[in-house]
Prior knowledge:
Layout: E1 4-11, H1 28-47, E2 52-59, H2 68-75, E3 79-82, H3 88-102, E4 108-111, H4 120-132, E5 137-141, E6 147-152, H5 171-181, E7 186-188, H6 198-207, H7 212-217, H8 221-224, H9 228-231
Helix pairs in contact: 1-2
Amino acid sequence: MTGLCLLVVAKAPVPGLAKTRLCPPASPEQAAEVAAAALLDTLDAVLAVPSAVPVVALTGDLPGAAQFAELRPLLARTRMIPQRGADFAARLAAAHADAAALCPGLPVLQIGMDTPQVTPGLLAAAGTRLRTDAADAVLGPAEDGGWWALGLRDPRAAEALREVPMSTAETGARTLDALRGRGLHVGTLPTLSDVDTVGDALRVADLVPESRFARAVGPLRAHSAPSKAAALPLTTED
């Protein structure tokens, strides 16, 4: 596989602003550590894809982020661009356009930082499909009804995202309809679970037990486990 722009749309993992749906049981600092670990693992996967040009569209205060010292050298190996746009859909469309300007003539495969279980092989295979299949686009569904990856042979087609309500249980289906409505043939990637809740984080950590992400999630397990005492029925001997 040669010739692919790999676009990561990311938010600086700043305590109090990152992964807030993990709080509680996580503290803001713990949630930021989980977000930083997810981004680090994602960057590792992206940087390991042969012949891909890594681009990161970032928002937020990076120097104030958790794990800034570890993030900085990895991000330095990418081309960084700021996110722009009034809402998330607009920022996604703009990120595709800006990535395409940096990588003229290349298809763009965009992911977020919520699937730290993603592998270089999976990303490379998606890129190969964009270059060799009949598909104009590839879409990776997420288990919650959204999507975790969008690849476009012609990145200008990302303008279709402006019509799609984001962060809903129908975002994936609506994105597929919007792309097909522009006449695109869309292939499907494997379904992954992204990380929004503590339950999501625990499930994904189990898939990649040796990862930074799993280590960051570890402290949340004790707080998330159901109480055995509460689960047992009461008897006259209790």
